[in-house]
Amino acid sequence: MSLDKALVDRLGSLALHSNHKIIVGVDYGTTFTGASYVSSKGTELSDVILISTWPGRSRVTNTVFKTPSRIAYPTDNPRISKTRWGYQVEPGMTGYSWTKLLLDQSTPLTKYDDATLEGASQAGILRLPKGKNAIDVVSDYLAEIYQYILGIISKQITEEELRMTPLEFWFTVPAIWSDQAQDATKAAAQRAGFGASLERPRDQIFLISEPEAAAITALKKYSTNSIGGSVKVGEGILVCDCGGGTVDITTYLVNQVIPTLKFEELCTGIGGKCGSTAVDRNFYNLMLDRFGDAFDNLPMRRKGPGSEFMKQFEIIKRDFGSSDESDYFELPLNMIVQDPDPAYFDDEERMVIISSDDLRAIFDPVIGQIIRLVRLQIRDARQETGKDIIKRIVLVGGFGGSEYLHKSLRSSFESSGNITITIPDSPQAAIVQGAALRGLEGLRSTTKRCRRHYGFSCGIPFREGIDNEANSYSDHFTGEKMVGGIMRWMIAKGEKYTENYTNHVDVCQIHFESSRLKKSVTFYACDNVQAPERVDDDGVYKVGEIVVDFSNVDLSRFGSKSVDGERLYSLSYNLTVILGAQEGILRFEAVSQGQTIGTTSINFNTIKYY
Protein backbone atom coordinates (compact mmCIF):
# COMPACT_ATOMS: atom_id res chain seq x y z
CA MET A 1 0.00 0.00 0.00
CA SER A 2 1.38 3.42 -0.92
CA LEU A 3 1.93 6.07 1.74
CA ASP A 4 -0.72 8.34 0.19
CA LYS A 5 -3.25 5.47 0.12
CA ALA A 6 -2.50 4.67 3.77
CA LEU A 7 -3.10 8.29 4.75
CA VAL A 8 -6.39 8.38 2.88
CA ASP A 9 -7.52 5.22 4.67
CA ARG A 10 -6.55 6.65 8.06
CA LEU A 11 -8.19 10.00 7.39
CA GLY A 12 -11.29 8.34 6.02
CA SER A 13 -13.70 9.55 3.38
CA LEU A 14 -15.42 12.50 4.96
CA ALA A 15 -17.95 12.59 2.13
CA LEU A 16 -20.02 15.61 3.03
CA HIS A 17 -21.51 14.30 6.27
CA SER A 18 -22.35 17.17 8.59
CA ASN A 19 -21.29 15.27 11.71
CA HIS A 20 -17.74 14.75 10.52
CA LYS A 21 -14.86 17.10 11.15
CA ILE A 22 -11.08 17.12 11.04
CA ILE A 23 -9.23 17.87 14.26
CA VAL A 24 -5.89 19.64 13.85
CA GLY A 25 -3.27 20.00 16.56
CA VAL A 26 -0.82 22.91 16.27
CA ASP A 27 2.23 23.22 18.52
CA TYR A 28 3.68 26.66 17.80
CA GLY A 29 6.95 26.63 19.70
CA THR A 30 9.71 29.12 20.42
CA THR A 31 12.15 27.32 18.15
CA PHE A 32 10.09 24.77 16.19
CA THR A 33 6.47 24.25 15.14
CA GLY A 34 4.61 21.00 14.52
CA ALA A 35 1.14 19.96 13.39
CA SER A 36 -1.03 16.86 13.38
CA TYR A 37 -4.52 15.99 12.20
CA VAL A 38 -7.09 13.24 12.59
CA SER A 39 -10.56 12.49 11.28
CA SER A 40 -13.36 12.48 13.84
CA LYS A 41 -13.83 8.87 12.69
CA GLY A 42 -10.53 8.02 14.38
CA THR A 43 -10.51 6.03 17.60
CA GLU A 44 -6.94 5.91 18.91
CA LEU A 45 -3.48 7.47 19.04
CA SER A 46 -2.32 5.63 15.93
CA ASP A 47 -5.01 7.40 13.88
CA VAL A 48 -3.37 10.78 14.51
CA ILE A 49 -1.29 11.77 11.48
CA LEU A 50 1.85 13.79 12.16
CA ILE A 51 2.87 16.17 9.40
CA SER A 52 6.41 14.97 8.71
CA THR A 53 7.33 16.81 5.52
CA TRP A 54 8.06 20.52 5.66
CA PRO A 55 9.27 22.71 2.78
CA GLY A 56 12.72 24.21 2.46
CA ARG A 57 16.20 23.24 1.29
CA SER A 58 17.87 23.78 4.66
CA ARG A 59 16.39 20.69 6.33
CA VAL A 60 18.82 17.82 6.82
CA THR A 61 16.42 14.93 6.08
CA ASN A 62 13.17 14.55 4.16
CA THR A 63 11.23 13.39 7.23
CA VAL A 64 11.03 15.99 10.00
CA PHE A 65 8.19 16.34 12.51
CA LYS A 66 8.74 20.06 13.04
CA THR A 67 9.76 23.13 11.11
CA PRO A 68 11.73 26.10 12.52
CA SER A 69 9.64 28.92 14.00
CA ARG A 70 11.44 31.39 11.78
CA ILE A 71 10.37 33.90 9.13
CA ALA A 72 12.21 36.13 6.64
CA TYR A 73 10.72 39.08 4.74
CA PRO A 74 11.65 40.39 1.26
CA THR A 75 12.09 43.88 2.75
CA ASP A 76 15.14 42.59 4.66
CA ASN A 77 16.33 40.23 1.92
CA PRO A 78 16.45 41.77 -1.58
CA ARG A 79 17.21 38.39 -3.18
CA ILE A 80 13.86 36.86 -2.25
CA SER A 81 10.55 37.92 -3.78
CA LYS A 82 8.16 36.54 -1.15
CA THR A 83 8.11 35.68 2.52
CA ARG A 84 10.15 32.62 3.49
CA TRP A 85 9.42 30.54 6.56
CA GLY A 86 10.67 27.47 8.41
CA TYR A 87 13.35 25.59 6.50
CA GLN A 88 12.94 28.00 3.60
CA VAL A 89 14.91 30.55 5.65
CA GLU A 90 18.46 29.68 4.68
CA PRO A 91 21.80 30.66 6.22
CA GLY A 92 22.68 34.19 5.14
CA MET A 93 19.09 35.45 5.20
CA THR A 94 17.93 38.01 7.76
CA GLY A 95 15.17 36.26 9.68
CA TYR A 96 13.20 36.53 12.91
CA SER A 97 13.21 33.78 15.52
CA TRP A 98 12.05 33.15 19.10
CA THR A 99 9.18 35.63 18.53
CA LYS A 100 6.85 33.48 20.63
CA LEU A 101 8.62 34.69 23.78
CA LEU A 102 7.63 38.26 22.89
CA LEU A 103 3.93 37.35 23.18
CA ASP A 104 4.28 37.03 26.96
CA GLN A 105 5.44 40.47 28.03
CA SER A 106 3.04 41.32 30.85
CA THR A 107 4.53 39.05 33.49
CA PRO A 108 7.76 40.03 35.28
CA LEU A 109 10.61 37.52 35.18
CA THR A 110 10.58 35.04 38.05
CA LYS A 111 13.48 33.41 39.88
CA TYR A 112 12.98 30.32 37.71
CA ASP A 113 13.33 32.22 34.44
CA ASP A 114 16.60 32.44 32.58
CA ALA A 115 18.36 35.57 33.83
CA THR A 116 19.88 36.26 30.39
CA LEU A 117 16.40 36.61 28.82
CA GLU A 118 16.14 40.24 29.86
CA GLY A 119 19.22 41.18 27.86
CA ALA A 120 18.50 38.96 24.87
CA SER A 121 16.91 41.72 22.80
CA GLN A 122 19.98 43.87 23.35
CA ALA A 123 22.05 41.00 21.94
CA GLY A 124 19.92 41.12 18.77
CA ILE A 125 18.21 37.76 19.28
CA LEU A 126 14.67 38.75 20.25
CA ARG A 127 14.17 41.27 17.47
CA LEU A 128 11.22 42.53 15.48
CA PRO A 129 11.15 44.01 11.97
CA LYS A 130 10.50 47.71 11.62
CA GLY A 131 6.80 48.52 11.72
CA LYS A 132 5.67 45.15 13.09
CA ASN A 133 4.89 43.98 16.61
CA ALA A 134 5.11 40.44 17.98
CA ILE A 135 1.52 39.51 17.07
CA ASP A 136 2.12 40.75 13.50
CA VAL A 137 5.18 38.53 13.05
CA VAL A 138 3.60 35.49 14.72
CA SER A 139 0.48 35.96 12.59
CA ASP A 140 2.54 36.18 9.39
CA TYR A 141 4.34 32.96 10.32
CA LEU A 142 1.18 31.12 11.35
CA ALA A 143 -0.52 32.18 8.10
CA GLU A 144 2.14 30.18 6.24
CA ILE A 145 1.59 27.23 8.59
CA TYR A 146 -2.19 27.45 8.05
CA GLN A 147 -1.92 27.37 4.27
CA TYR A 148 0.55 24.49 4.40
CA ILE A 149 -1.72 22.42 6.70
CA LEU A 150 -4.68 22.99 4.35
CA GLY A 151 -2.49 21.94 1.44
CA ILE A 152 -1.46 18.71 3.18
CA ILE A 153 -5.06 17.79 4.08
CA SER A 154 -6.32 18.67 0.58
CA LYS A 155 -4.03 15.97 -0.84
CA GLN A 156 -5.94 13.31 1.11
CA ILE A 157 -9.53 14.39 0.32
CA THR A 158 -11.21 16.34 -2.45
CA GLU A 159 -11.38 20.13 -2.45
CA GLU A 160 -15.16 19.93 -2.10
CA GLU A 161 -14.89 17.66 0.95
CA LEU A 162 -12.35 19.98 2.53
CA ARG A 163 -14.53 23.00 1.82
CA MET A 164 -17.55 21.39 3.48
CA THR A 165 -15.79 19.75 6.43
CA PRO A 166 -15.29 21.80 9.62
CA LEU A 167 -11.74 22.04 10.94
CA GLU A 168 -11.28 22.09 14.72
CA PHE A 169 -7.89 23.56 15.65
CA TRP A 170 -6.25 22.89 19.02
CA PHE A 171 -3.36 25.25 19.74
CA THR A 172 -0.96 24.42 22.55
CA VAL A 173 0.29 27.15 24.89
CA PRO A 174 2.71 27.07 27.85
CA ALA A 175 0.85 26.51 31.13
CA ILE A 176 2.99 29.19 32.79
CA TRP A 177 1.85 31.86 30.35
CA SER A 178 -0.11 34.88 31.42
CA ASP A 179 -3.72 35.33 30.32
CA GLN A 180 -2.58 38.15 28.05
CA ALA A 181 -0.13 35.84 26.27
CA GLN A 182 -2.79 33.17 25.74
CA ASP A 183 -5.11 35.79 24.27
CA ALA A 184 -2.30 37.09 22.05
CA THR A 185 -1.65 33.57 20.75
CA LYS A 186 -5.30 33.07 19.86
CA ALA A 187 -5.52 36.53 18.26
CA ALA A 188 -2.45 35.83 16.10
CA ALA A 189 -3.84 32.44 15.05
CA GLN A 190 -7.22 33.91 14.13
CA ARG A 191 -5.59 36.68 12.13
CA ALA A 192 -3.56 34.00 10.33
CA GLY A 193 -6.73 32.24 9.18
CA PHE A 194 -7.32 29.62 11.87
CA GLY A 195 -10.87 29.40 13.24
CA ALA A 196 -14.12 30.73 11.81
CA SER A 197 -14.02 32.99 8.74
CA LEU A 198 -16.32 34.03 5.91
CA GLU A 199 -14.94 31.20 3.78
CA ARG A 200 -15.01 28.63 6.60
CA PRO A 201 -17.70 29.72 9.10
CA ARG A 202 -17.84 26.37 10.95
CA ASP A 203 -14.14 26.17 11.82
CA GLN A 204 -13.21 26.55 15.49
CA ILE A 205 -10.08 27.24 17.52
CA PHE A 206 -9.31 26.12 21.07
CA LEU A 207 -6.32 26.29 23.39
CA ILE A 208 -4.79 23.52 25.50
CA SER A 209 -1.81 23.74 27.82
CA GLU A 210 1.35 22.07 26.54
CA PRO A 211 1.88 19.78 29.57
CA GLU A 212 -1.75 18.62 29.46
CA ALA A 213 -1.41 17.80 25.76
CA ALA A 214 1.79 15.88 26.53
CA ALA A 215 0.08 14.10 29.43
CA ILE A 216 -2.75 12.95 27.15
CA THR A 217 -0.22 11.34 24.79
CA ALA A 218 1.94 9.84 27.53
CA LEU A 219 -0.93 8.51 29.65
CA LYS A 220 -2.67 7.15 26.57
CA LYS A 221 0.50 5.29 25.64
CA TYR A 222 1.39 4.10 29.14
CA SER A 223 -2.18 3.14 30.06
CA THR A 224 -1.59 -0.09 28.16
CA ASN A 225 1.33 -2.47 28.58
CA SER A 226 4.34 -0.99 26.85
CA ILE A 227 8.11 -0.95 26.99
CA GLY A 228 7.94 1.98 29.40
CA GLY A 229 5.64 0.07 31.76
CA SER A 230 1.95 0.74 32.31
CA VAL A 231 0.58 3.35 34.70
CA LYS A 232 -1.66 2.31 37.57
CA VAL A 233 -4.64 3.89 39.28
CA GLY A 234 -3.47 6.11 42.13
CA GLU A 235 -0.06 6.86 40.63
CA GLY A 236 1.27 10.37 40.25
CA ILE A 237 2.77 11.17 36.84
CA LEU A 238 4.97 14.27 36.59
CA VAL A 239 5.10 15.69 33.06
CA CYS A 240 8.22 17.77 32.45
CA ASP A 241 7.74 19.65 29.19
CA CYS A 242 11.10 21.13 28.22
CA GLY A 243 10.69 23.21 25.09
CA GLY A 244 12.70 25.87 23.35
CA GLY A 245 11.59 28.84 25.42
CA THR A 246 9.70 27.46 28.39
CA VAL A 247 9.72 24.60 30.87
CA ASP A 248 6.29 23.51 32.16
CA ILE A 249 5.93 20.99 34.97
CA THR A 250 2.55 19.57 35.96
CA THR A 251 1.67 16.45 37.97
CA TYR A 252 -1.37 14.33 37.21
CA LEU A 253 -3.10 11.70 39.34
CA VAL A 254 -4.37 8.65 37.44
CA ASN A 255 -7.97 8.01 38.57
CA GLN A 256 -8.97 5.33 36.07
CA VAL A 257 -7.32 3.34 33.30
CA ILE A 258 -10.07 0.95 32.14
CA PRO A 259 -12.46 1.25 30.35
CA THR A 260 -11.45 4.85 29.73
CA LEU A 261 -8.50 6.90 30.90
CA LYS A 262 -9.28 9.51 33.57
CA PHE A 263 -6.81 11.80 35.31
CA GLU A 264 -6.68 15.10 37.19
CA GLU A 265 -4.13 17.75 38.11
CA LEU A 266 -2.68 16.80 41.47
CA CYS A 267 -1.18 20.13 42.50
CA THR A 268 -0.49 23.57 41.05
CA GLY A 269 1.94 23.32 38.16
CA ILE A 270 5.10 25.39 37.97
CA GLY A 271 7.58 26.42 35.31
CA GLY A 272 9.89 29.06 33.96
CA LYS A 273 11.38 30.55 30.82
CA CYS A 274 14.44 28.31 31.00
CA GLY A 275 14.13 26.12 27.89
CA SER A 276 16.79 25.22 25.35
CA THR A 277 17.09 28.80 24.09
CA ALA A 278 18.54 29.61 27.53
CA VAL A 279 21.41 27.26 26.62
CA ASP A 280 21.79 29.19 23.35
CA ARG A 281 21.91 32.50 25.22
CA ASN A 282 24.59 31.15 27.57
CA PHE A 283 26.53 30.05 24.50
CA TYR A 284 26.24 33.53 22.98
CA ASN A 285 27.49 35.04 26.22
CA LEU A 286 30.49 32.70 26.19
CA MET A 287 31.28 33.81 22.64
CA LEU A 288 31.00 37.47 23.67
CA ASP A 289 33.30 36.91 26.65
CA ARG A 290 35.93 35.21 24.49
CA PHE A 291 35.77 37.22 21.29
CA GLY A 292 34.19 40.55 22.28
CA ASP A 293 33.42 42.89 19.40
CA ALA A 294 34.68 40.39 16.83
CA PHE A 295 31.63 38.23 17.62
CA ASP A 296 29.27 41.00 18.68
CA ASN A 297 29.63 42.89 15.39
CA LEU A 298 28.95 39.86 13.20
CA PRO A 299 25.67 40.07 11.25
CA MET A 300 22.91 37.83 12.59
CA ARG A 301 22.91 35.81 9.37
CA ARG A 302 26.31 34.42 10.42
CA LYS A 303 25.63 33.78 14.10
CA GLY A 304 21.84 33.83 14.61
CA PRO A 305 19.30 30.99 14.60
CA GLY A 306 19.47 29.11 11.29
CA SER A 307 23.06 30.10 10.52
CA GLU A 308 25.61 27.35 9.78
CA PHE A 309 27.26 28.26 13.08
CA MET A 310 24.09 27.67 15.12
CA LYS A 311 23.02 24.63 13.08
CA GLN A 312 26.27 22.98 14.12
CA PHE A 313 25.70 24.03 17.72
CA GLU A 314 22.20 22.47 17.61
CA ILE A 315 23.77 19.13 16.65
CA ILE A 316 26.34 19.41 19.45
CA LYS A 317 23.64 20.46 21.93
CA ARG A 318 21.39 17.53 21.05
CA ASP A 319 24.13 14.87 21.31
CA PHE A 320 26.01 16.30 24.29
CA GLY A 321 26.00 13.80 27.14
CA SER A 322 26.52 10.72 24.96
CA SER A 323 29.18 8.36 26.26
CA ASP A 324 31.24 8.47 23.07
CA GLU A 325 31.42 12.25 22.74
CA SER A 326 34.60 14.18 22.01
CA ASP A 327 36.43 16.41 24.45
CA TYR A 328 36.43 19.26 21.92
CA PHE A 329 34.00 20.47 19.27
CA GLU A 330 34.46 22.73 16.23
CA LEU A 331 31.96 25.18 14.80
CA PRO A 332 32.48 27.03 11.49
CA LEU A 333 32.41 30.81 11.81
CA ASN A 334 33.83 33.34 9.36
CA MET A 335 35.13 35.82 11.92
CA ILE A 336 38.25 37.98 12.12
CA VAL A 337 39.85 37.77 15.57
CA GLN A 338 42.93 39.77 16.54
CA ASP A 339 45.60 37.52 18.12
CA PRO A 340 43.20 34.64 18.77
CA ASP A 341 43.84 32.10 21.49
CA PRO A 342 44.38 28.82 19.58
CA ALA A 343 42.51 26.97 22.33
CA TYR A 344 39.37 28.87 21.34
CA PHE A 345 39.70 29.74 17.65
CA ASP A 346 41.44 28.16 14.67
CA ASP A 347 42.27 31.25 12.61
CA GLU A 348 43.34 29.31 9.52
CA GLU A 349 40.24 27.11 9.32
CA ARG A 350 37.91 29.77 10.78
CA MET A 351 36.67 27.38 13.47
CA VAL A 352 35.42 28.18 16.97
CA ILE A 353 36.61 25.54 19.44
CA ILE A 354 34.65 24.66 22.58
CA SER A 355 35.33 21.94 25.13
CA SER A 356 33.11 19.55 27.08
CA ASP A 357 33.80 21.69 30.14
CA ASP A 358 32.52 24.73 28.21
CA LEU A 359 29.32 22.86 27.36
CA ARG A 360 28.79 21.78 30.95
CA ALA A 361 29.17 25.41 32.03
CA ILE A 362 26.59 26.40 29.39
CA PHE A 363 24.12 23.62 30.24
CA ASP A 364 24.40 23.34 34.02
CA PRO A 365 22.68 26.63 35.04
CA VAL A 366 19.67 25.72 32.87
CA ILE A 367 19.58 22.06 33.96
CA GLY A 368 19.89 23.24 37.56
CA GLN A 369 16.78 25.41 37.20
CA ILE A 370 14.81 22.51 35.72
CA ILE A 371 15.89 20.15 38.52
CA ARG A 372 14.90 22.72 41.14
CA LEU A 373 11.47 23.05 39.54
CA VAL A 374 11.01 19.26 39.50
CA ARG A 375 12.03 19.03 43.18
CA LEU A 376 9.50 21.72 44.07
CA GLN A 377 6.73 19.89 42.24
CA ILE A 378 7.60 16.61 43.99
CA ARG A 379 7.51 18.46 47.32
CA ASP A 380 4.13 20.04 46.52
CA ALA A 381 2.69 16.65 45.51
CA ARG A 382 3.94 15.13 48.77
CA GLN A 383 2.37 17.95 50.78
CA GLU A 384 -0.92 17.56 48.90
CA THR A 385 -1.21 13.79 49.44
CA GLY A 386 0.94 13.10 52.51
CA LYS A 387 2.99 10.49 50.67
CA ASP A 388 5.53 10.02 47.88
CA ILE A 389 2.97 9.66 45.12
CA ILE A 390 5.05 10.55 42.04
CA LYS A 391 6.28 7.32 40.47
CA ARG A 392 7.14 8.47 36.97
CA ILE A 393 8.63 11.55 35.33
CA VAL A 394 7.74 11.83 31.64
CA LEU A 395 10.17 14.02 29.72
CA VAL A 396 8.73 15.66 26.57
CA GLY A 397 9.36 18.65 24.32
CA GLY A 398 12.20 19.45 21.96
CA PHE A 399 14.71 19.95 24.79
CA GLY A 400 13.32 16.77 26.39
CA GLY A 401 15.34 14.79 23.85
CA SER A 402 18.63 16.16 25.24
CA GLU A 403 20.86 13.31 26.40
CA TYR A 404 22.56 15.54 28.97
CA LEU A 405 19.21 16.61 30.45
CA HIS A 406 18.03 12.99 30.57
CA LYS A 407 21.17 11.83 32.37
CA SER A 408 20.99 14.73 34.82
CA LEU A 409 17.37 13.93 35.74
CA ARG A 410 18.13 10.22 36.13
CA SER A 411 21.07 10.94 38.37
CA SER A 412 18.97 13.32 40.50
CA PHE A 413 15.73 11.34 40.83
CA GLU A 414 16.20 7.67 39.94
CA SER A 415 18.84 6.95 42.59
CA SER A 416 16.17 6.35 45.26
CA GLY A 417 14.57 3.67 43.10
CA ASN A 418 11.07 5.08 43.55
CA ILE A 419 10.85 7.26 40.42
CA THR A 420 11.29 6.20 36.80
CA ILE A 421 12.32 8.66 34.07
CA THR A 422 10.71 7.88 30.70
CA ILE A 423 10.87 9.59 27.33
CA PRO A 424 8.13 8.81 24.77
CA ASP A 425 9.05 8.05 21.18
CA SER A 426 9.59 11.40 19.43
CA PRO A 427 9.28 13.54 22.59
CA GLN A 428 9.07 16.66 20.41
CA ALA A 429 5.87 15.29 18.81
CA ALA A 430 4.08 14.22 22.01
CA ILE A 431 2.48 17.63 22.53
CA VAL A 432 1.02 18.03 19.07
CA GLN A 433 -0.29 14.43 19.15
CA GLY A 434 -2.01 15.13 22.47
CA ALA A 435 -3.58 18.30 21.11
CA ALA A 436 -5.30 16.31 18.35
CA LEU A 437 -6.32 13.57 20.81
CA ARG A 438 -7.92 16.21 23.03
CA GLY A 439 -10.24 17.15 20.21
CA LEU A 440 -10.78 13.56 19.04
CA GLU A 441 -11.57 11.77 22.29
CA GLY A 442 -12.34 14.64 24.63
CA LEU A 443 -9.50 13.40 26.83
CA ARG A 444 -8.62 16.02 29.40
CA SER A 445 -7.77 16.50 33.02
CA THR A 446 -11.07 16.21 34.91
CA THR A 447 -9.99 18.92 37.32
CA LYS A 448 -7.26 21.53 37.09
CA ARG A 449 -5.44 23.65 39.65
CA CYS A 450 -5.63 27.40 39.32
CA ARG A 451 -2.22 28.87 38.51
CA ARG A 452 -2.83 32.17 40.30
CA HIS A 453 -5.34 34.11 42.39
CA TYR A 454 -7.95 36.06 40.39
CA GLY A 455 -10.24 38.80 41.62
CA PHE A 456 -11.55 42.37 41.65
CA SER A 457 -10.93 45.42 43.78
CA CYS A 458 -13.96 46.75 45.63
CA GLY A 459 -15.05 49.04 48.44
CA ILE A 460 -16.29 47.96 51.88
CA PRO A 461 -17.44 49.88 54.98
CA PHE A 462 -14.46 51.63 56.58
CA ARG A 463 -12.94 49.77 59.55
CA GLU A 464 -11.67 52.18 62.20
CA GLY A 465 -8.22 51.29 63.47
CA ILE A 466 -7.61 48.93 60.54
CA ASP A 467 -7.95 50.89 57.32
CA ASN A 468 -5.84 53.82 56.18
CA GLU A 469 -7.69 57.15 55.98
CA ALA A 470 -5.95 57.82 52.67
CA ASN A 471 -7.98 55.00 51.12
CA SER A 472 -11.35 56.19 52.44
CA TYR A 473 -14.18 57.77 50.45
CA SER A 474 -17.86 58.62 50.85
CA ASP A 475 -20.48 56.51 49.08
CA HIS A 476 -22.34 58.72 46.56
CA PHE A 477 -25.72 57.18 47.33
CA THR A 478 -25.66 56.44 51.07
CA GLY A 479 -22.99 58.84 52.28
CA GLU A 480 -21.44 55.95 54.23
CA LYS A 481 -17.69 56.06 54.86
CA MET A 482 -16.02 53.38 52.75
CA VAL A 483 -12.52 52.08 52.07
CA GLY A 484 -11.45 51.24 48.52
CA GLY A 485 -8.86 48.87 47.12
CA ILE A 486 -10.02 45.75 49.00
CA MET A 487 -9.52 42.59 46.94
CA ARG A 488 -12.42 40.24 46.30
CA TRP A 489 -10.64 37.05 45.25
CA MET A 490 -12.88 34.84 43.12
CA ILE A 491 -10.62 31.79 42.89
CA ALA A 492 -7.47 30.97 44.82
CA LYS A 493 -4.12 29.76 43.57
CA GLY A 494 -4.05 25.97 43.84
CA GLU A 495 -7.84 25.68 44.02
CA LYS A 496 -9.39 22.84 42.03
CA TYR A 497 -11.72 23.76 39.21
CA THR A 498 -13.47 21.92 36.41
CA GLU A 499 -14.04 22.94 32.81
CA ASN A 500 -16.22 26.05 32.59
CA TYR A 501 -15.82 26.78 36.30
CA THR A 502 -17.85 29.88 37.07
CA ASN A 503 -17.94 32.36 39.91
CA HIS A 504 -20.06 35.44 40.36
CA VAL A 505 -19.49 38.88 41.79
CA ASP A 506 -22.03 41.66 42.31
CA VAL A 507 -20.78 44.91 40.87
CA CYS A 508 -22.19 48.37 41.47
CA GLN A 509 -20.89 51.36 39.55
CA ILE A 510 -21.97 54.97 39.66
CA HIS A 511 -23.00 56.47 36.34
CA PHE A 512 -23.20 60.23 35.89
CA GLU A 513 -25.78 61.17 33.29
CA SER A 514 -23.18 63.06 31.27
CA SER A 515 -20.62 60.21 31.22
CA ARG A 516 -20.14 57.29 28.82
CA LEU A 517 -22.22 54.14 29.19
CA LYS A 518 -19.27 51.85 28.52
CA LYS A 519 -17.95 50.87 31.95
CA SER A 520 -14.94 48.85 32.97
CA VAL A 521 -13.83 46.75 35.91
CA THR A 522 -10.16 45.96 36.44
CA PHE A 523 -9.39 42.27 36.77
CA TYR A 524 -6.37 41.43 38.95
CA ALA A 525 -4.18 38.39 39.57
CA CYS A 526 -1.51 37.41 42.07
CA ASP A 527 1.05 34.60 41.95
CA ASN A 528 1.86 34.67 45.68
CA VAL A 529 0.99 31.62 47.77
CA GLN A 530 -1.15 33.74 50.09
CA ALA A 531 -3.53 36.22 48.48
CA PRO A 532 -3.07 39.75 49.87
CA GLU A 533 -5.99 41.86 51.08
CA ARG A 534 -5.31 45.05 49.16
CA VAL A 535 -4.88 45.85 45.49
CA ASP A 536 -1.72 47.85 46.21
CA ASP A 537 -0.01 45.02 48.10
CA ASP A 538 3.10 43.41 46.63
CA GLY A 539 2.43 40.78 43.98
CA VAL A 540 -0.96 42.05 42.78
CA TYR A 541 -0.99 42.96 39.09
CA LYS A 542 -3.56 43.91 36.47
CA VAL A 543 -4.76 41.26 34.04
CA GLY A 544 -6.93 43.65 32.08
CA GLU A 545 -9.98 45.85 31.90
CA ILE A 546 -13.30 44.03 31.60
CA VAL A 547 -15.64 46.11 29.44
CA VAL A 548 -19.42 46.12 29.97
CA ASP A 549 -21.54 48.14 27.55
CA PHE A 550 -24.77 49.66 28.92
CA SER A 551 -25.54 51.64 25.75
CA ASN A 552 -28.70 49.66 24.96
CA VAL A 553 -29.95 49.30 28.53
CA ASP A 554 -32.95 51.18 29.93
CA LEU A 555 -31.48 53.33 32.72
CA SER A 556 -34.87 53.61 34.40
CA ARG A 557 -34.36 50.03 35.57
CA PHE A 558 -31.63 51.19 37.93
CA GLY A 559 -31.76 53.23 41.11
CA SER A 560 -31.00 56.92 40.67
CA LYS A 561 -30.88 60.24 42.48
CA SER A 562 -30.17 63.87 41.69
CA VAL A 563 -26.94 65.39 42.99
CA ASP A 564 -26.10 69.03 42.29
CA GLY A 565 -28.52 69.11 39.39
CA GLU A 566 -27.16 66.00 37.69
CA ARG A 567 -28.76 62.57 37.82
CA LEU A 568 -26.68 59.69 39.16
CA TYR A 569 -27.50 56.06 38.44
CA SER A 570 -26.42 53.01 40.41
CA LEU A 571 -25.63 50.47 37.72
CA SER A 572 -25.83 47.16 39.55
CA TYR A 573 -25.12 43.91 37.76
CA ASN A 574 -23.74 40.43 38.29
CA LEU A 575 -20.47 39.60 36.56
CA THR A 576 -19.69 35.94 35.88
CA VAL A 577 -16.09 34.88 35.35
CA ILE A 578 -15.58 31.62 33.44
CA LEU A 579 -12.24 29.87 33.94
CA GLY A 580 -11.18 26.75 32.10
CA ALA A 581 -13.44 27.62 29.20
CA GLN A 582 -13.00 25.29 26.23
CA GLU A 583 -11.78 28.21 24.16
CA GLY A 584 -8.81 28.32 26.53
CA ILE A 585 -9.16 31.96 27.56
CA LEU A 586 -10.99 33.93 30.25
CA ARG A 587 -14.63 34.68 29.45
CA PHE A 588 -17.05 37.06 31.15
CA GLU A 589 -20.80 37.52 31.12
CA ALA A 590 -22.75 40.36 32.71
CA VAL A 591 -26.36 40.03 33.92
CA SER A 592 -28.58 42.69 35.45
CA GLN A 593 -32.09 42.20 36.89
CA GLY A 594 -32.28 38.72 35.38
CA GLN A 595 -31.36 39.81 31.86
CA THR A 596 -28.07 39.35 30.05
CA ILE A 597 -26.66 42.75 29.23
CA GLY A 598 -23.95 41.32 27.06
CA THR A 599 -20.90 39.13 26.95
CA THR A 600 -17.95 41.22 27.97
CA SER A 601 -14.55 41.44 26.38
CA ILE A 602 -11.24 41.87 28.15
CA ASN A 603 -8.55 44.34 27.17
CA PHE A 604 -5.21 42.96 28.29
CA ASN A 605 -2.41 45.12 29.58
CA THR A 606 0.73 45.00 27.47
CA ILE A 607 3.47 46.23 29.75
CA LYS A 608 6.86 45.58 28.13
CA TYR A 609 9.37 44.12 30.50
CA TYR A 610 12.29 43.05 28.29
TrEMBL record:
Molecular function GO labels: ATP binding; ATP-dependent protein folding chaperone
Gene3D superfamilies, per database record: 3.30.420.40, Actin, Chain A, domain 4
Keyword Translocase: no
Cited Pfam families: HSP70
Keywords assigned: ATP-binding, Nucleotide-binding
InterPro entries: ATPase_NBD, Hsp_70_fam
Protein origin, superkingdom: Eukaryota
Name of the protein this chain belongs to: Actin-like ATPase domain-containing protein
Originating species: Aspergillus tamarii
